[in-house]
Structure formats: structure tokens, C-alpha cells
Design goal:
It holds the Pfam family Mga. The protein is of the alpha/beta class. Helices cover about 55% and strands about 10% of the residues. The chain has six domains: about 80 residues, Winged helix-like DNA-binding domain superfamily/Winged helix DNA-binding domain (Arc Repressor Mutant, subunit A, Orthogonal Bundle), CATH 1.10.10; about 70 residues, Winged helix-like DNA-binding domain superfamily/Winged helix DNA-binding domain (Arc Repressor Mutant, subunit A, Orthogonal Bundle), CATH 1.10.10; about 100 residues; about 100 residues, PTS-regulatory domain, PRD (Orthogonal Bundle), CATH 1.10.1790.10; about 80 residues, Response regulator (Rossmann fold); about 150 residues, Mannitol-specific EII, Chain A, CATH 3.40.930. The strands form four sheets. A five-stranded mixed sheet has the order 9-12-13-11-10. Strands 6-5-7-8 form a four-stranded parallel sheet, covered by helices on one side. Strands 1-2 form a two-stranded antiparallel sheet. The longest helix has 21 residues. The protein is elongated and about 105 Å long.
């Protein structure tokens, strides 16, 4: 494996791969002599030859240039060297060694030989003896026992739930996550767990607090890792101890994340269901202390105040910061901060995120009186840049307000679902209790939503959405935020269930037929019919080209829809006006952008040719095809 200095030289050459770099320049950057550079280059050349990952070219008058032949193998080699260096550096302190031993023993299905542990830690017999003595004392707190078998080595015995508690409470699991190479994988896994949990809790209409939600993500990271390694909760938990709803949710969770059919998860499911019902174990059962979680939350608030970037609702960022903060704090307390060979590249690529990471370092210093190095700050830069990529920082971002009587801690599912739907469009998402609405200026928001029935506070300005939002709520919210932004958004207002081809005696009969179809499909109250007929009494709803479009006096339905009748024989609508196509148009209440449907419909109604095409083939499929063609130049 390469040394730290050799890795630094490789990093310099990799960054300047398009040209030759003089030995004097490398010496200057590394703070060593030219002779030492040449000696190190020879070692590096030999190391690269072993795997044919790259070629180090040398020209006396120019210097050195790195030509990478296998990018993946080269990157893997560098990361393996870095991890070994970091591991060797960390193992100088007993607290880190103890965590490593616990993790090593709990991750093994067999006895672990003493020589294997000793080789991994690079310690003497006496040091290992003291470390194992401390390990035995720590695991006993969790009803676990360490056994030694001559010729075989060491193992830890006990129940799986107790082993998981040890991994969590002793920060051992968080220690296993601390690798820059694991960043993308960790973020992807955390984000996947978050999104799946949101879907499952929404589907089951299950309320959950933000603290519980974040803790459950961390718990599942550990649980899934243990199951993947073949370690399952024992048969000490039965279904009859938990509620059917919690059991169904737990079952849904494991079906989403575990696809193996060769293992029996019934006790895992029951164990998770019991904890969900209690809604307390996960708050306590986590790998990160309350102090660290509180510090990170306060730091993100401070960052928002200073930088104008709100990370406070980014669960992904909070979880990964918390998990990676644990081993960082341990290293800092023992003065063992890591080197980051990509420091220069990170600073140049993500300057704003690096500034935030540096400020986060100042907050760490104020709290823990320990300064983090630029190298450590560079690791945090990756996390903050991830957060920045998921925040809209320009003026085009939307400010949304949701009026709800839910407690702030209970809005987590609704909040996360809105972020999933409109992640790249939201500049600010606020929740407010109806009783506090008078304290703010709602005109500052681009769109208003409410989970409250019978909205009287905003006088109809807020779009009503469900506490557990569905795709119908997405359509309503998307319309309020963006208007109609695609052809499909218009076509989705039509439905084959609201499509009629046949005869009608007169105007009244066909209007009432369409009203009955819509009322049955959308469960509309009698007032809907009254509003349509009231509007019909005011003035003609005939538009052009044998098309009439009756509609309510004002927006009334929970979502926009269009019921269609194509008549085999024309009927008299007004004096001297024959109608062959009737569109009953109902726009969504409390959504001003819903009115945008009208100009799009005019593309059909005002074209004699398009109306003729609809009448020539009276199928629903043809109607959709003609409508799509009429809208091609609108989007």
C-alpha cells in the first residue's frame, strides 16, 4: 500500500493529468526535496505496475505525467490505500480500537482468531489484552457475553436485539459509515429509505413525528445491514402483541427493502410493529445522542440565518450529518483528524458548500472547543453540497404555505411528500396553524394549501389537500404551483367514465345527464347541479362550431374535470344554434390557476376542422388524439 506522501504526489499528478509536472513543483507542494520526490516516484511506479491501473511517464526536461489506463481500478486502489492509512491512524487510540473489535466480532458468524484481530489493529499482546477486557465490560451492559475458545478465538454471544442495541448505543454502527467513499452510497440509501417510509405511512394514513421519523431511518439502516449479513431477531415476538395496523406497516416496510425469499422475517416484522405501536423505542434506540441531534439542528438554523440557505427540513442531510459526526467527534477528541487528498479539488468545485462547512466547523469549535481542519471540512462539504443541490436558490423558486392544525412535529409526512413532488421548485415551504394565520402576510406566498375542511380564513384562496396526499392532490397542487405545464396535464382532466355518445331530447336533458355522471363519479353534492343551472340561466353557454360548454356559476369541485357528450343528432341550444358536442367544464375551487383550462379548450372549440374530426370518429380515443394534436404548439 502507498504512504500518505505517495498518495499526495499521485493526487497532484492526477489533477494535472493533461500536462507534465516538474519534480521541483511537486517538491514545493509537498514540502520535501527533489531527491525525495524522485525516490517516491520510483515506489509509485512499481506500485502502479502491479495492477496496470496507470502509467507514470517521465521526461527529464519536462517532469512527470500520470496516464490512467483503468479509471475504476485506479480509483479503487487510491481509496483502499486511504482507508488503510486512516484505519492505522485511528487505531492508535483505545476507544476507536474497542469499537472496531466490537464491530468485528458482531459482524462475524464464527469465532475470530486472536491473530486476525491483532493484525487488524497492529497492537501488542498486552495492548490487545487490555482492549478485550474493556470490550467484555462494555458488552455486558447489553446482556452480551464474550467467549474465548482455544484454537478458535473470540465471539460474542447473546440475543440479536441486544447486539443491535450495543451497535447503536456505543456508536459502533456510525463508526462503520465513516468513509468518504461511502458518501454516495450512504446518501442514496438514506434517501431511498426516507422516500419508501413516506409512501408507506401515507398509504396507511399513519401519523408520525419528525423525531420518530428520523430515528426510524437510522434504525432501519442498522436493521437492514444486520439482516443482509444474516442476523435476525429471535422468535420472542409474536403478532398478537401488536396492532394489525402497525403490523401491516412493518410488513410493508420489509417488503420494500428485503427482497430475499429464503429468510423468514415474521419476528422482525412483529418486533418492528411492537416498537411502532409504542412510538417510543425508536426515539431512544438510535446510534446518535440527543446532544448531537440537537447541536446539528441548531447549527442548521444558524446556517440558515447566516447564509440564507434552509437545510432544516432536509432529513437526508440531518441523518447523514448525525451519523458521520459521531466518529468525527471521537477523532477530534483524540486529535486524530483525517487528511483529505481531494481537498483542493473539493474547494475549487464546491466553494459555497465549503464556506458553509467551514462555518459549521466554527460552530463545532464554539460547542466542543475543538477546531476541525480544512481536510475534515472538505468531507462535510460533500454533504452540504448534496443539500444545496436539492434547494432552489434563485428567485424562480416557489414559496408555499400550508394551513393545518397539525402540530409541527406531525407534518413530516405531508412535508416530505410535497418536497418529493416539487423538490426542485420550492424555495420555501411553511406550515402554520389556522389560529396564527392573522400574524402573517399570505400575499407573500405563491400558493396556499390547507388540510382544514371548510376554509373560511383565506376566503377560498387556499387549495384543499388531504393530510395523507394522493396523486389527485399532486394534480391539484401542481396546477396551483405551475398551472397546466404539459399536454397530459390538460388531457388528465378528461375521463372515459365521463364520456357519452348518444342522443338527447334537448339542452336540459343532456346537461342533467352530464351533471349526474360527474356527481356520481366525484361524489358531488346537489349544490353542484344548482350552480350549473344557475349559470345556464344567466346567459348562453354556446361557444362556437356546434360546441357548448356549460359550467358552474363559480368553481366548486375538488378538482378540475370535463365531462363530454357527443350527440348523434344535433339539438337546439339557443335560438338558431345547433349543438353536437357538449363539454361540462368544472374548475377546481380555490385554485386560481385552474382557470387556465379555458384557453386550451378554445384550441379545439374554435377550430371547425378539429371539431369535424371529433364528429367523424366519436370514440374517446379519437377525442384524446384530436385534443393532443390541437395542443402541440402550446407546450
Amino acid at each position: 500500500m502507498l504512504t500518505q506522501r505517495q498518495l499526495t504526489i499521485l493526487s497532484i499528478l492526477e489533477a494535472a493529468a493533461d500536462h507534465y509536472t516538474a519534480a521541483a513543483q511537486i517538491a514545493d507542494e509537498c514540502g520535501i526535496s527533489v531527491r525525495t520526490v524522485k525516490s517516491e516516484i520510483e515506489v509509485i511506479k512499481q506500485s502502479l505496475k502491479e495492477g496496470s491501473k496507470a502509467v507514470l511517464l517521465a521526461i527529464p526536461s519536462k517532469g512527470y505525467r500520470l496516464e490512467i489506463t483503468d479509471i475504476k481500478s485506479f480509483a479503487d486502489m487510491l481509496e483502499a490505500s486511504r482507508q488503510q492509512l486512516n484505519s492505522e491512524h485511528s487505531m492508535n487510540e483505545q476507544p476507536i480500537r474497542i469499537k472496531f473489535i466490537i464491530l468485528m466480532l458482531l459482524n462475524s458468524t464464527h469465532y475470530v482468531k486472536k491473530k486476525k484481530i491483532q493484525s487488524a489493529l497492529n497492537v501488542s499482546d498486552s495492548t490487545l489484552y487490555l482492549d478485550l477486557k474493556e470490550v467484555k465490560q462494555i458488552i455486558s451492559r447489553y446482556h452480551l457475553e464474550m467467549l474465548y475458545k482455544s484454537g478458535s478465538g473470540y465471539c460474542i454471544l447473546g440475543k440479536e436485539k441486544d447486539k443491535r442495541a450495543c451497535l447503536a448505543y456505543e456508536d459502533v454502527y456510525a463508526l462503520s459509515l465513516d468513509s468518504s467513499a461511502s458518501f454516495n452510497a450512504d446518501m442514496k440509501k438514506i434517501n431511498h429509505i426516507k422516500e419508501m417510509l413516506v409512501e408507506i405511512f401515507l398509504k396507511n394514513q399513519y401519523k408520525i413525528s419528525e423525531v420518530l421519523f428520523e430515528s426510524l431511518i437510522m434504525h432501519l439502516l442498522l436493521t437492514l445491514q444486520r439482516i443482509e449479513k444474516g442476523y435476525l431477531i429471535e422468535d420472542s415476538y409474536e403478532r398478537d402483541k401488536c396492532d394489525d395496523k402497525e403490523y401491516q406497516i412493518a410488513q410493508d416496510i420489509f417488503e420494500k427493502f428485503i427482497h430475499r425469499r429464503d429468510i423468514d422475517l415474521k419476528y422482525e416484522i412483529a418486533y418492528l410493529a411492537i416498537n411502532l405501536r409504542g412510538k417510543r423505542d425508536y426515539v431512544d434506540y438510535k446510534s446518535v445522542s440527543d446532544e448531537i441531534i440537537t447541536f446539528i439542528a441548531a447549527s442548521l438554523e444558524q446556517i440558515n440565518s447566516e447564509f440564507g440557505v434552509d437545510f432544516t427540513r432536509s432529513i437526508d442531510l440531518k441523518v447523514v450529518l448525525a451519523l458521520h459526526f459521531v466518529p468525527l467527534l471521537s477523532r477530534m477528541q483524540h486529535d486524530m483528524q483525517l487528511k483529505n487528498l481531494l481537498l483542493t479539488e473539493i474547494k475549487q468545485s464546491f466553494p459555497f458548500a465549503f464556506d458553509i462547512a467551514q462555518y459549521f466547523g466554527l460552530l463545532i469549535y464554539e460547542k466542543y472547543h475543538i477546531r476541525i481542519s480544512e481536510d475534515e471540512a472538505a468531507y462535510f462539504t460533500l454533504y452540504f453540497n448534496y443539500g444545496l443541490e436539492n434547494i432552489v436558490l434563485n428567485s424562480e423558486g416557489k414559496k408555499l404555505l400550508v394551513i393545518s392544525s397539525l402540530k409541527q412535529s406531525e407534518t413530516i409526512l405531508l412535508r416530505q411528500k410535497i418536497y418529493q413532488w416539487f423538490e426542485k421548485q420550492i424555495l420555501q415551504l411553511d406550515f402554520i396553524n389556522p389560529s396564527d394565520l392573522s400574524r402573517i402576510n399570505i400575499s407573500e406566498y405563491d400558493a396556499l394549501f390547507t388540510t382544514e375542511k371548510g376554509d373560511t380564513l383565506t376566503k377560498g384562496a387556499a387549495v384543499n389537500i388531504n393530510l395523507f396526499p394522493t396523486e389527485k392532490d399532486f394534480a391539484k397542487m401542481n396546477l396551483a404551483i405551475n398551472g397546466y405545464d404539459s399536454i397530459d396535464a390538460i388531457l388528465n382532466c378528461f375521463s372515459p367514465e365521463l364520456f357519452y355518445v348518444g342522443k338527447a331530447a334537448d339542452r336540459s336533458q343532456i346537461v342533467h345527464r352530464l351533471i349526474d355522471m360527474a356527481a356520481g363519479y366525484y361524489h358531488l353534492p346537489p349544490k353542484f347541479e344548482a350552480l350549473v343551472m344557475e349559470r345556464e340561466a344567466l346567459s348562453s353557454s354556446y361557444f362556437a362550431n356546434h360546441v357548448a360548454m356549460p359550467h358552474p356559476l363559480y368553481p366548486f369541485s375538488p378538482q378540475t374535470f370535463i365531462a363530454v357528450a357527443i350527440l348523434e343528432e344535433g339539438i337546439e341550444w339557443d335560438e338558431g344554434r345547433q349543438v353536437k358536442i357538449v363539454l361540462l367544464v368544472s374548475t377546481e375551487m380555490n385554485n386560481p390557476k385552474a382557470f387556465q383550462i379555458w384557453p386550451y379548450l378554445s384550441s379545439l372549440v374554435c377550430s371547425e376542422e378539429l371539431v369535424g374530426q371529433v364528429l367523424a370518429d366519436t370514440s374517446y380515443e379519437n377525442l384524446m388524439a384530436v385534443l393532443r394534436a390541437s395542443l402541440l404548439d402550446k407546450f
